[in-house]
Amino acid sequence: MIIPEPIKCEIEYKGGVDNLYKKMPPEDELKRWSEIHHALSSPLRLKILYMVASQPLCVCIIKHILKVSDSKLSYHLSILSGSGIIKGTREGNWIIYSATEEGKQMIEGISGK
Asked: What SUPFAM superfamilies does its record include (predicted)?
């Protein structure tokens, strides 16, 4: 493989291509970060995360504030729940959503607070 000399020297200095590959996180960790970034890639999902990080909320309140259809809200809640940054807890006929500790950390990281 032909590569620019400065890049080749830097790679060799740092232990070679194999060492560069070994420094990458494990595949499952990369997949996890990919899921989280996907969950955070929608302004609507970010709004939901901000709301449930401030206090647990039922679906009806989230829907009322965001003015979205049931199916759209369900889709976005599913992505957020699937990524592990929010959780839904059944309380009687209600599902109450709240941010997980990881979700709260995401909000702190995004907002700098």
From this structure: Winged helix' DNA-binding domain (SSF46785)
